[in-house]
Amino acid sequence: MTENAVPETKVVAPKTEDFSKEIEHSMERASNEHIKVVRVFDNCYRCNWWAADKSPQAFWLSSGTIKKSRFVRATKTTTGLLVEDVTKVGSGVGNG
Fold first, then answer.
1. For residue 62, which phi and psi values (nearest 5 degrees)?
2. Model pTM?
3. Hey, which residues does 74 pair with through a beta bridge?
4. Domain locations in the chain?
5. DSSP code per residue over 37-95
6. Mind listing the pLDDT tens digit for each residue in 17-27?
7. For residues 69 and 51, is the Cβ–Cβ distance under 8 A?
8. Residue 81: phi, psi to the nearest 5?
């Protein structure tokens, strides 16, 4: 190693809290819908509104239909959790 060599350093992003469960409980839903929220990265989440399939099926098989899907950004504020819809509108895909 030479005299002027600088040791390599890695920048590590601070961990952000996962708000998936809080978002699930805060979203509006119809009585026949279940919401599943998954953290995509940092403070961005995908929310899917599911409606269960009522047809007869084996007890271990759970199926349904996604009725609506949204991307949201969640930020913790002094007044609570701020959830913003950041879904790109007008793309023609997933607008429901």
1. -110, 115
2. 0.68
3. 83
4. 20-55+62-85
5. EEEEETTEEEEEEEEE--S---TT---EEEEEEEEEEEEEETTEEEEEE---TTSSSS-
6. 899 999 999 99
7. no
8. -90, 125
